[in-house]
Design goal:
By secondary structure, the chain is mainly β. Helices cover about 10% and strands about 45% of the residues. The protein has a domain of about 110 residues: PH-domain like (Roll). It has two helices and ten strands. The strands form two sheets. It has an eight-stranded antiparallel β-sheet with strand order 3-8-9-10-4-5-6-7. A two-stranded antiparallel ribbon has the order 1-2. It is elongated and about 75 Å long.
Length: about 170
């Protein structure tokens, strides 16, 4: 205990009651998390209300018009995060990178042709670029996963697995 002692008998409350008021621990579910949500052409944050320990959020499909904005925001939030990059085909999954810091994810759409890319490594040396030609779908799975499908039924999965504080700039 810290601070001055109360003048009279102190009110006893559980830790959950202090933050959630009359709903107690059930009020925890009322607080949002800071996940990204794409709605009506806009990237919004803090709208995920799932309780901790609940099943993972479903992947949020983002229309092509929102890819650039979503990938820029994902890159900003996860720059320096250790990631895995996995390529999944009908034959199975192949790990392309593990424990490499993320530099950024982006998309270019020119003349009706799209290309997505993932850049990994140290921006001053040793940069690895994974390119997804002809992407047809981009999905966000909060808090730190991206799925990019291409026209050949190949999925690239980028998963943030932790941060290295010395690499986060």
């Amino acid at each position: 205990m810290s601070g001055p002692h109360p003048a009279g008998p102190a009110e006893l409350r559980s830790a959950a009651a202090w933050g959630q008021g009359s709903r107690g621990a059930r009020g925890y579910e009322d607080s949002g998390r800071s996940s990204l949500v794409f709605s009506q052409g806009e990237l919004l944050g803090g709208l995920d209300t799932g309780a901790p320990g609940s099943p993972p959020a479903p992947a949020l499909a983002v229309p092509e018009a929102g890819w650039t904005k979503l990938l820029d925001e994902f890159s900003r939030q996860h720059k320096g995060c250790w990631v895995t990059v996995e390529v999944i085909t009908g034959l199975g999954a192949e790990l392309q990178a593990r424990g490499v810091p993320l530099l950024g994810v982006g998309a270019e759409i020119r003349d009706g042709r799209a290309k997505a890319y993932v850049q990994l490594g140290d921006e001053h040396r040793d940069v690895l670029t994974h390119i997804v030609n002809a992407p047809i779908a981009v999905r966000l799975r909060p808090p730190g996963e991206l799925e990019i499908d291409d026209a050949n039924n190949v999925r690239t999965l980028i998963r943030c697995i932790g941060h290295r504080p010395s690499l986060v700039r």
